[in-house]
Write a structure and sequence with these properties.
The protein is 38% helix and 15% strand. Strands 4-3-5 form a 3-stranded mixed sheet, with no helix packed on it. A two-stranded antiparallel ribbon has the order 1-2. A hairpin with a 5-residue loop joins strand 1 and strand 2. Helix 1 packs across helix 2. The longest helix is centred in the middle third of the chain and has 13 residues. The chain starts with 9 loop residues before the first helix and ends in a 6-residue tail after the last helix.
Length: 150
C-alpha cells in the first residue's frame, strides 16, 4: 500500500496501513507516524529516533519501520556509502536514482529490470523472490550548477 489516498494525510495513511495489518494504533505508533509523515527527504532510523521523545523505545522505532516497509508505506534507500535510509513510498514497487553530491532521491519507475532478472534467474535455476536497485550518480541540479564536474 503506497501512500495514495489524497483525502488522508501521510500520518493517517501510515496508521491505516498498520491497522489494516492488524496492529493497534498505540500512542507510540501515532507519535512515530506523525514524525514520519512530515519527513521531506529520506531519513535514517536513528535520525528519526532523535526527533522523538526519549520515552519512545528504540525497538518500537525499528519494529515499526520494518512493518511499514513490509506494508509498502515506506521504502528502503541504500546510499552509496552503505547507510540505510527510509522514505515515504508514493508508488508501488520502484527503484531510486540517488545523487552522490547533494543526496537527492528520485523514484525510478517503469524499469525493465524485472524481465532481465527473471530471465537471468531462470537461466541459473534460481527462484527469484525479490530485488532492490539503487542507481548512483549526479542529479540535474548538481550537473547544471557545475558541482558534478569537480
Amino acid at each position: 500500500m503506497a501512500l495514495k489516498k489524497r483525502n488522508l494525510s501521510a500520518t493517517e495513511q501510515i496508521l491505516e496501513a498498520l491497522e489494516e495489518r492488524g496492529y493497534r494504533s498505540t500512542a507510540p505508533r501515532r507519535t512515530l507516524a506523525a514524525a514520519i509523515g512530515v519527513q521531506k527527504r529520506h531519513f535514517t532510523a536513528e535520525g528519526l529516533r532523535r526527533q522523538l521523545p526519549p520515552t519512545l523505545g528504540r525497538a518500537t522505532v525499528y519494529r515499526t519501520l520494518k512493518l511499514l516497509v513490509e506494508a509498502g508505506v515506506l521504502c528502503r534507500v541504500m546510499l552509496e556509502d552503505g547507510d540505510l535510509h527510509y522514505q515515504l513510498s508514493h508508488r508501488g514497487h520502484h527503484h531510486h536514482l540517488l545523487c552522490v553530491l547533494c543526496g537527492s532521491s528520485q523514484d525510478l519507475t517503469g524499469c525493465d529490470i524485472e524481465d532481465l532478472l527473471a530471465a537471468t534467474s531462470a537461466r541459473h535455476g534460481f527462484e527469484l523472490s525479490g530485488h532492490w536497485l539503487e542507481v548512483y550518480g549526479h542529479c540535474r541540479d548538481c550537473i547544471q550548477n557545475g558541482r558534478a564536474a569537480a
